[in-house]
Fold:
Amino acid sequence: MTAKVLESFGGKFAEQWVATLLTPAFVFWLGGFVTAIQRFGWQTIVTEFTRYAEPLQIAILVGCLCIIAASAFVVQRSDLTMLRILEGYWYPWLDHFRQRRIRHYRDRRNRLDQERQDLRKTEAQRNQEFAALEHLKQSHGGENLSPIERDRYLQLREQLLTPIEQETLIRLGQLLREMPTTNADLMPTRLGNLLRAAERKPLEKYGLDAIVCWSRLWMLLPDAVKKDLQEARTDLNTAARVWFWSILFCVWSVFGWSLWAIWSVVLGVLSAWFAYRWVIDAARVYGELIEAAFDLYRHLLYQSIRWNLPPEPDVERRVGADLTRYLMRGF
Structure:
């Protein structure tokens, strides 16, 4: 019967069904099928299925595949909604929790910034110490340097910060880059802060609001750049979709009467954790590509609108703000 079913699909149609099966939607419904087996038993399901005529069996299989495809399509059309939920755009009745999470990220950002300032201060102090030893060495030919001072001079000449301190400084800089610089822009989730920070980078650097200018800039980008951005966005949407299916997978625990009820929750939670990490990595790449697009191709936006691009950074921020207002309001 399986061969007849595959033959009835034929050619490209069969390939489309195979592509549909290799999606999180198929895994989700497979979990539901395993739940049904645990509840009713494999023999009972096989007996009931074989009672039907072969055409009806084929119709049932086709109907199941249609349900899988339809559910995958519905979830795919909800990618933006899922991303907004993961970013922290929640309903008003969650505002108290949202504000508490924002305070958490504000305190974390302040703590990270303080740690970075302390390392910068340590680096500056050691730089002053090295300059003083260098001056003393040049003034007296190094004869007045004690062995301890000479060892300290050689150490500071190699590097002002230790390898661990340098790694910490780089890590702090990366973490702070993934968070907005102002309290008003903070979001209650890591993903929200990461994407919000990427949106604010063009505004802070060039005075260009990414939300207003992006659709115009997109039409001017080279095809290779568009392809990279589309692939990064597709990866982000796919990760969010997998996260959503993972959360839904836990629903099967309600209908299970065995250990599968526990395992469905465990598998769903583990998959959701993996998918969220995937979302963060994909959003980091996508945000960096958007920032790079403004860095390298913003001049195309100025040229197409016949707007002069000033060479000075301070003047460019003011002119960029004027351009944003013109695109948004027409004056």
Q: What stands out?
A: The chain has three domains: 2-77, 78-88+190-331, 94-188.
